[in-house]
Specification:
Chain A: Keywords: Calcium, Hydrolase, Manganese, Metal-binding, Repeat. The complex is a heterodimer of chains A (715) and B (162). Chain A is built from 25 helices and 20 strands. Chain A is an alpha/beta fold. Chain B has two domains: 80 residues, Recoverin, domain 1 (Orthogonal Bundle); 64 residues, EF-hand (Recoverin, domain 1), CATH 1.10.238.10. In chain B, helix 1 crosses helix 4 and helix 5 packs antiparallel against helix 8. Classes of the chains: A alpha/beta (715), B mainly alpha (162). At the A-B interface, helix 1, helix 18 and helix 19 of A face helix 1, helix 2, helix 5 and helix 7 of B.
């Protein structure tokens, strides 16, 4: 080779060799790429299953929460005085009054005056880029004005491409302000020549949900004809309690947070439900069902549905479901029909009204009694209804309002619009994964399109790797605008532009420079690492269940890898390809067996190294820490951060009995005692949870890890 | 004797489970079918190193009489099980891979230029598609010198190959 006078035989030999060499290299390379592809899909599956498994918890918790909401009246200590009902807007105004708030001279953030001007909007964007915070006074003022504006809007916004040549539709943002900045940078700000539709889920999970709301509401008021907002399932205070928005607001606005939250609640319920472009493209956040009725949706009093929860399990054929309208801290005293504010249908006639909070001792005693009663009921119901679904058991404990059929049907309409997901199979069935809405098939889509002469649907609600995805024969488009949703590099965000021809044009992006500089392999590795960390955490949280499952197959402390996969799926029920994932989770002996006890211990060590608390209790708390947090926030209705030790203890008992968790009375007592709390028997649970988090982060190893790790329960 | 048959049975059953799992990762409609274009990924991620020609042979066995563009698990499972049991499509050892690169490196400089790499990969053997070529270049090429140090690249491909 390399001789200038290579003989033809030599050349021929080289050609043959080059061919063989090429085939070899190509073979290797293709196998490498396939392996990467498999890893990428598995990682995606991990994140999705964990995310939806959390939402599954919501099914159980929804009813429990509504029970709590119903039961616990506000504390009566002076600053904590909350009016019982916002039957009239005037009362809401009085409570969330901002005019008396003084803005100190030292405040350097933007100062808003109404009516808002484009300059205010750009000033706000600039301020948020500089990480400034808008003064509570302006936040409240903005919210009041937004509410006023939204009230006059119909349930379904109508947009026409003849006025605005192009319409840009954005999907879920979930508090990721950087993505919104990126969209504005690439696509331009809203303006008389730039129409935007934002399709819900502006808040929760990401850490700048409030900033996003402020920006969107500001543009809404500045350009009311060009900015359209749809409500998403996360524009709901019940969901916010769980997924971080409530916490974000309280952390950023320690004094006025409550007012802001209250106001937001009354803004969310006024968000329109859908948008129609040229009467041909329907934009809703979640999806549709086989009973979706646009005419009815147009007429519904949308503001009455603050939070739509599920009562009894709906049957396939019979959709007469009793839905409870939850109204947060309010109990309507007058008939809700003509009222402006949040309406509640909670019956007042329920026995054992909670005593006033003036006497904490009395309250504690009452809590204890009620808790005991409930635990007894739990037990009785479990005995009686063994054959029935779990959900029926829980929902029976909820104070069910006897809503008339039309009322519950209307409620269902909104529920379906906000929570449904498309599925490939035909038909329409309950969305058991989310606990609300349906799975709707291509036939359902086809019917709706035909019925209302539509061309296609645009929805969001589901994270897509490329930021968008078609299904149902390109009749349903999912658009998702929160890039790197699970982890840096996990997915792109996208927005879609429609001109008069209604042909969609997509723009994709990833709001993190790091993601761009990484190669495909590096990106996949990084996301994968994060996914597996989350998965190992989940495995750890089920240690005792796993241990029992393994023992059943046990032969001297060892099980086969095949058994491992079967057992793990039976416990975790995440529907993951465990055999594919096994190499990253388990190191097995040469004979293909696993010593499961030491594997479980290794898992524990990874988690325990961050904690001082005993592992048994740790496991239970781990699994439920975000649920616990949510419950605390409900109990602590005035968001003061304090609940009594009694309340904490009883709530835990109630919660654990609802969720069929073993009661660990002593464990809880020890745990609580090991944390400093006021000698008057109050727990500053913010500090408690914070301490829990800090301990977790305090190890050097943890600090070295990338800051943004996927935590299925993260905010 | 019994023990041996037991473990053999377990192995086949286990193999079938593995195949089904891998298959289902690509089964988007949850109806036991995958797009025919994904079969390559499935077969390879199960540890096999077929050439494109071998893959086509396999496809011929699992396709429907009237090709629909979809492969059904029912047909795929027995064929793939046989492949794994018989350990077909095994990789050649790493040093052979190195020799392959060295054979193409006529000047023996320890690297291939971008032009050389593109020429061999898109004109020889079972040519790459443009996408495949771009992907390989993005990871393998040193942007400053526009060359691929193949020894380093091999380590990347090997280490990652669990």
């Amino acid at each position: 080779m390399g001789h200038s006078h290579c003989s033809s035989a030599c050349r021929f030999r080289f050609c043959a060799l080059a061919f063989k060499a090429a085939v070899l290299i190509q073979r290797w390379y293709r196998r490498y790429v396939a392996r990467l592809e498999m890893r990428r899909r598995c990682t995606w599956r991990i994140f999705q299953s964990i995310e939806y498994a959390c939402e599954q918890d919501q099914i159980k918790l929804h009813n429990f929460f509504s029970y709590l909401m119903d039961r616990f009246t506000p504390s009566s200590s002076k600053e904590r005085k909350l009016p019982h009902a916002f039957c009239r807007y005037a009362e809401l105004e009085k409570y969330c009054d901002y005019e008396s708030m003084e803005v100190p001279d030292s405040y350097v953030g933007p100062r808003l005056s109404f009516p808002l001007l484009p300059d205010h909007a750009t000033a706000l964007l600039e301020a948020f880029k500089q990480k400034q915070q808008l003064h509570a006074r302006y936040v409240l003022n903005l919210l009041h004005e937004t509410r006023k504006h939204l009230k006059q809007l119909p349930n379904i916004s109508h947009v026409s491409t003849c006025y605005s040549e192009e319409v840009t539709v954005c999907g879920d943002l979930h508090g990721q302000l950087d993505d919104l900045f990126l969209i504005f940078y690439k696509n331009g700000l809203p303006s008389p020549s730039k129409t935007y539709v934002f399709n819900g889920d502006f808040v929760d999970r990401g850490k700048q949900s409030l900033e996003i709301l402020i920006v969107l509401f500001t543009f809404l008021l500045v350009y009311p004809n060009e900015v359209h907002l749809n409500r998403g399932n996360h524009e709901d205070h019940m969901v916010n309690l769980r997924y971080g928005f409530t916490k974000e607001v309280m952390q950023k606005y320690k004094v006025h947070g409550r007012k802001i939250l209250k106001m937001i609640q009354n803004v969310f319920c006024w968000l329109p439900l859908a948008t129609l472009i040229d009467e041909k493209v329907l934009i809703i956040h979640g999806g549709i069902s086989d009973t979706t009725d646009l005419d009815m949706l147009e007429k519904i009093q949308r503001h009455k549905f603050i939070s739509v929860l599920r009562g009894k399990k709906r049957k396939e054929s019979n959709r007469n479901v009793e839905i409870q309208e939850i109204n947060g801290e309010d109990k309507a005293q007058a008939s809700p029909a003509e009222q402006d504010g949040a309406a509640s249908a909670c019956p007042q006639s329920r026995a054992a009204q909670a005593p006033s909070m003036a006497n904490r001792l009395e309250f504690s005693r009452w809590v204890r009694q009620t808790v005991q009663e409930q635990i007894e009921r739990c037990r009785r119901l479990v005995d009686v209804s063994e054959s029935e679904e779990e959900e029926l058991t829980y929902s029976s404990l909820v104070s069910m309002t006897d809503l008339d059929a039309p009322e519950s049907f209307r409620s269902l309409q909104i529920l379906d619009i906000l929570w449904s997901d498309p599925m490939p199979q035909e038909g329409c069935r309950e969305n058991t994964v989310r606990g609300g809405g349906c799975y709707f098939g291509p036939d359902v889509t086809e019917k709706i399109l035909k019925k209302y002469s539509l061309q296609f649907l645009i929805r969001s609600h589901e994270c897509k790797q490329e930021g968008y995805e078609f299904c149902h024969n390109r009749k349903v488009l999912t658009i998702f605008s929160a890039s790197n949703y699970y982890e840096i590099g996990s997915n792109r965000g996208a927005y879609v532009k429609l001109g008069p021809d209604l042909v969609p044009h997509f723009v994709q992006y990833q709001a993190n420079k790091t993601a761009h500089t990484l190669t495909m392999t590096q990106r996949i590795s990084r996301v994968e690492e994060s996914a597996f960390r989350a998965l190992r955490e989940k495995l750890f949280a089920h240690t005792s269940a796993l241990s029992s499952a393994f023992k059943a197959y046990d032969k001297e402390g060892r099980i086969t890898l095949s058994t491992w996969a079967t057992a793990v799926e039976s416990v975790l029920r995440l529907g993951l390809p465990w055999r594919m994932l096994r190499p990253q989770l388990v190191r097995s002996a040469a004979d293909g067996t696993l010593e499961y006890q030491s594997w479980l211990e290794d898992l524990a060590m990874e988690q325990r190294s961050r904690e001082h608390i005993q592992s048994g209790l740790l496991e239970v708390i781990y699994r439920n820490r975000s649920n616990l947090e949510t419950i605390f926030r409900i109990i602590d209705r005035d968001h003061s951060g304090l609940i009594s030790f009694e309340e904490f203890h009883q709530t835990w008992k109630l919660f654990s009995s609802h969720m069929n968790i073993e009661l660990t009375d002593d464990g809880i007592s020890d745990l609580v005692r090991s944390i400093d709390f006021n000698k008057d028997g109050n727990i500053d649970f913010n500090e408690f949870l914070e301490a829990f988090r800090l301990v977790k982060q305090s190890t050097p190893a943890a600090r070295a890890k990338p800051p943004r790790s996927h935590d299925a329960n993260r905010i | 004797e019994n023990e041996k048959t037991d473990s053999e049975y377990n192995t086949v059953a286990e193999i079938e489970k593995k195949i089904t799992e891998a298959f289902e990762v690509f089964d988007h409609e949850c109806n036991q079918t995958v797009d025919v274009r994904e079969i390559g990924s499935i077969v390879r991620s199960l540890g096999c190193y077929p050439t494109e020609a071998q893959l086509h042979e396999l496809l011929a066995e699992v396709e429907e009489e009237e090709p629909t563009g979809y492969i059904h698990l029912q047909k795929f499972l027995p064929v793939m099980t046989r492949v794994l049991v018989e350990r077909s499509y095994q990789p050649t050892p790493e040093d052979v891979l190195l020799h392959a690169f060295e054979a193409l490196d006529v000047n023996k400089c320890g690297y291939l230029t971008k032009e050389e790499l593109v020429k061999y990969m898109t004109e020889e053997g079972e040519p790459f598609t443009q996408e495949e070529m771009e992907d390989m270049l993005s990871a393998a090429l040193d942007p400053e010198t526009n060359t691929m140090r193949y020894k380093d690249y091999i380590t990347l491909m090997i280490v990652d190959d669990v």
